[in-house]
Amino acid sequence: MSTGERQEWMVTLQTATRPPASSSQKHSDSLPHLSSTNKRGLLELRGYKGRVLVSLVGSKVRLCKTEQDFRAGLGISEVELTAANIKEVDRRGFEVSTPFKNFCFVAESEREKEEWVEAIKESIAETLYNYEVAEKIWFNEANRSCADCGMSQPEWASVNLGVVICKKCAGQHRSLGPSLSKVRSLKLDCSIWSNELVELFLEVGNKNANSFWAANLTFEEELHSGATVEERATFIRRKYREKKYRKVLEDFNDLKKLNRALCAAVVSSDVLQTMELVFNGADVMCATGDPDYSTPYVLAQRAGQKLQMEFLHQNKLSDFPRLDQCSENPCLSDASLFMDGFLYVSSGPVKMMPDRRGRDDMARRWCTLEGGFLSYYENERSPSAIGRVDVTEVVSLAVSNSETMTGAGALFTIELYLRTERALTVRAETQETQHDWIQALTKCFVPSKVEGLVQKDSKLIGRLQYKEGHDLYHWRTGWFMLEGSTLHFSSGDEEEVLHLKQLQELKL
Ligand SMILES: [Zn+2]
Fold it and tell me: In CATH, what class is 338-445?
């Protein structure tokens, strides 16, 4: 018997004689317990020298060299278990294969291997569970074929438009920009599918949404599932941006009338009426005239209309041009917002940000901005993202106009603050790329009607609640931009300017 074999027998026998509960903890005893971790421990990875620290968290397996690397968010690789397979190779070995890459692990014992296989199988089963969102949404029969081209079993959705669409049409919806269409997957973005959102899709769905968007669509103009990329792009642009086929509500050409009708609709159970008004250009954030219930959302909340609330929430950043604006302004600037490049990234809870937490945890990542999501990857070739931020959830963006000296040289900082009280700091290598990223990022969370604010050389831009001098009862939402000591402000109509040096009093 060789020493290796002897060692193996020892471990196997030790494992077998130990009470079951402690065996899985063998390697984790010295490691801090993380409640979100399903399983972690040391495994051999074929093709890699030495053992690696493997952590299974949710639907992801993260491979790190050391515990320090794990805590700093530095990994050798991250395996997304959606669409992954696991198979046992031999007594101690198992293989996890994804559409992009295969990983071969060797555990220290057969028992250990079985525990890993079981834990990973469970996680894979959980990713399949996401099919349940699709199954639920397809329960509405109209949602079983793409709202645009009719392809069967569509797996994507535009969550603000309330339509279920196929993958090819989803690509074209993304290029409309998030202010017209917020594209999400029924399977991959499972965390966003709340009960209310699923219910909204059962209530609205493709048939009702198309009764608005495609009311005047002729048979000849219809899009077919085999259409070319160009045909698809043209059709989707005409349908949602130019509103060429939509139902016309003649009475509602001015914004005041639309907004008044919206305030009346949101307290009823008729979501379809709300939908038509919003798609026609009613302002979801308009003032209701009621001091206690100042936005349509709060009105719906008071009336206990959960679906109305969900619809308004999904459309809080939407910007549908009104009929009178449509012809003048058929093409808005954010048509195909896509950007990628290297940035230094670090993220954490807001309270950790001011001291900048040391510089070494900023890692150079390949970043992409698409469909309102900023994703960062280990490198350009990594198949799955390390992290992803929904930029439409950003409440403010802060810019540092001077360079920051870091271990990686002089970098240019942008800080994004999210509704969830998390913050993401990214640093660009040049001032030009910093500027390009600021332009692209702000387009994702600032409605185009206040886009004028973004053009300037801003230090801080974000959404705030405010009250106005002559009307101290109404809290309203506005967009603010700080440039030097000048505060620019817009609620969507006119831009106002406050010179802070002339300010008499500031109350907190
Ligand atoms: Zn389609």
Answer: mainly beta
CATH topology for 3-129 is: PH-domain like (2.30.29)
The C-alpha atoms of residue 271 and residue 277 are separated, in whole angstroms, by: 10
Give the C-alpha separation, 17 to 14, whole Å. 5
From the CA of 126, how far away is ligand 1's center (Å)?
Answer: 27
Q: Measure 202 CA to ligand 1 centroid, in angstroms.
A: 19
- For residue 150, report the distance from its CA to the centre of ligand 1, in Å: 6
Q: What is the mean pLDDT of the chain?
A: 80
* 164's tokens: 């279920």
The residue whose two tokens read 């009426």 is: 273
Cα 382–chain centre separation: 19
| Cα 184 to middle of ligand 1, angstroms | 14
Instruction: Let me know if the fold of 3-129 is the same as that of 132-332.
Output: no
* Contacts of residue 449, Cβ cutoff 8 Å, sequence gap at least 6: 319, 492
Strand pairing partners for 184? 157
Cα separation, 341 vs 373, in Å, equals 14
Phi, psi of 476 (to 5 degrees): -125, 160
First to last CA, the chain: 77
Cα(284) to centroid(ligand 1), Å: 28
Q: Has residue 77 got a pLDDT over 90?
A: no
Q: What is the pLDDT of residues 277-304, one digit of tens each?
A: 999 889 998 888 888 888 999 999 999 9
User: Apex CA 397: angle with CA 375 and CA 387, to 5°?
Assistant: 20
Give bridge partners of residue 339 from the DSSP assignment: 369
Helix (H, G, I), strand (E, B) or coil at 13: helix
Distance 171 CA to ligand 1 centre (A): 9
Where do the structural domains in the chain lie, given as residue ranges? 3-129, 132-332, 338-445, 460-508
Q: How far is the CA of 166 from the centre of ligand 1 (A)?
A: 4
Q: Is residue 386 within 8 Å of 453, Cβ to Cβ?
A: no
Return the structure tokens found at 244.
């060429």
280 C-alpha vs ligand 1 centroid, how far in Å?
23
CA distance linking residue 265 with residue 275, whole number of Å: 9
How many whole angstroms separate alpha carbon 185 and alpha carbon 193? 10
Model confidence, pTM: 0.50
CA distance 208 to 150: 15
Structure tokens at 67: 């515990």
Residue 455 CB contacts under 8 Å (≥ 6 apart), including other chains: none
Tokens of 132: 């349940």
151 alpha carbon – ligand 1 mean position (Å): 5
Query: Distance between alpha carbon 153 and the CA centroid of its chain, in Å?
Result: 23
pLDDT tens for each residue of 300-324: 999 999 999 999 999 988 888 775 5
Lowest mean pLDDT among 264-273, 310-319, 492-501: 492-501
Q: Hey, what CATH class is 132-332 in?
A: mainly alpha
Ligand 1 centroid to 230 CA: how many Å?
A: 13
Q: What's the pLDDT score for residue 25?
A: 36
